[in-house]
Amino acid sequence: MKKIRLLKCPGYVPATRVDRLTDLPLQFDAMVAQPGDLVLPSPVNAHDHGYGIRTLDFGAVDDALEVWIPGLRLRPRTDPYLEALVAFGRLAKTGVGATMHCHNSLNIDRLVDEASAVMRAAGDVGIRLGLSCPLLDHDAWAYDGGPRRLRPFLSEGDWEALAGTIPNYAPIHAQLDAVETIAAANTNLLVDVQYGPIGPQWCSNALLEAIAEASSRHDRRIHMHLLESRRQRAWLDRRFPEGVVTYLDKIGFLSPRLAVAHGVQLRPDELELLADRGVQVVSNPTANLRLRSGVAPIASMIGRGGPAFAIGLDGTGLDDDQDLWREMRLLYLLHGGRGLTQQFTAQMLFDAAIKVGRQVINASDVQDFTIVDYQALIADALFDDVDEAEVLLTRMSARFAKKLFVAGREVMRDGKLTGIDFDAALSELLAHAKADLPRLERQRPLVSALSAATRTYYATWPGID
């Protein structure tokens, strides 16, 4: 007779088979899970950008990271609440109920209002949220000098158009005050507000030092991109001869309150230092492949006692579908090794997706659950005693997620969200985006010119292709 499978610790021990869910800290009724279902702790999407309108939809085709970034200028002007509502709803429909959201606004005057809208969207969908508030004071167009480095590769008209859009960044104290204002206004117990320096290449030393001090003083977490591409590695090595990770350690930036995303270019000595300081590294395998950054040194991390790692979608996913289950499988296969003995285990993978992911969003003690149609996963199986964690890492995808419970609330049932009308929200968001098409059409030639100029600029760097 089929039973309900309760997989409390994926990768450690097989699921317990029960008739009823009587030992979970939730008020389940008899109809929540049915025979043939599997119940497990929900994984966390530990690094993302909340793209309601995904990048390919507004024409930002995958490319090398720095060449791809100008395409973000084509992001439609939409309502931040709707944008977040669709992004979070898309994720919850897959059975994932927690995400680390790196907000995309660079306008300090709008940040407080936009953050409020994002937090409201998370509450309406019902997910847990780490909210990384963007902080920067260096221009993003080109490392080692900003937009003036692109001038030789642009026509006079394109340069004038670019120069007219270079922002004036708010003073450091104003940026940090905005984060504290957002945190003070947060009434959602499922939301954790964090400092979000976009990356050391886009922050002055003074800003990085101020963030380190503020994080210690307020006991507030930091979430930052770090060493994603070869060009970032080359520039940061020139800027910090002692090494950027060593510099961050000297100013007190490294601590268990810090999570860094990507980390593709991290060296073994840097991994060791991050581990010593309790920093978490969030791996984004699909994004790193799609933006030609490479493969993060996860195998080195697990083989040498490196830093704890989590998993994030970074707004993409292998099929552009925000399916964290597939992302987990990609990571598992990429770092499985070639030997006779498996070094990267299901236990490590699920710890990354659940335990460390919850640490990244500052929600270590929560118990949220996803219910999977496990019978559908093993419909053709001749044996029903194969380790459930291995089955999930081989076959699981969003379409098998039946229900999602966050903080005792049923957020998703049979692919439908219980708190919002996702299809209506998506339709409204697309209408907003299409209303901005005339501006986007005018911007496209400049974006193409910027991407071409960026490619040519970095091609001049010795030893970096």
Mean pLDDT: 93
Query: Tell me, what is the CATH class?
Result: Alpha Beta
For this structure, the CATH topology is: TIM Barrel
Overall, the morphology is globular
Rg over C-alpha atoms, rounded to the nearest angstrom: 22 Å
Total number of strands:
15
Low-confidence stretches: none
CATH superfamily: Metal-dependent hydrolases
Which strands sit side by side, in order, in the main sheet? Answer: 2-1-3-12-13-14-15
Describe this structure in words.
- The protein is globular and about 75 Å long.
- Helix 2 (80-92) packs across helix 16, helix 3 (108-125) runs parallel beside helix 5 (172-185) and helix 12 packs across helix 15.
- The protein has helices at residues 65-68, 80-92, 108-125, 156-163, 172-185, 205-218, 230-239, 244-250, 268-277, 285-290, 298-303, 324-334, 346-360, 374-377, 388-395, 422-435, 437-459; strands at residues 4-6, 16-18, 38-41, 45-48, 98-102, 128-135, 191-197, 222-226, 258-262, 280-283, 309-311, 369-372, 401-406, 409-413, 416-417.
- The chain has 465 residues and is an alpha/beta fold.
- It has a single domain, classed as Metal-dependent hydrolases (TIM Barrel, Alpha-Beta Barrel).
- The strands form three sheets. The chain has a seven-stranded mixed sheet, with no helix packed on it.
- The chain has 17 helices and 15 strands.
- The longest helix is centred in the C-terminal third of the chain and has 23 residues, at 437-459.
- Strand 9 (258-262), helix 9 and strand 10 (280-283) form a beta-alpha-beta unit.
- Helices cover 40% and strands 15% of the residues.
- Keywords: Hydrolase.
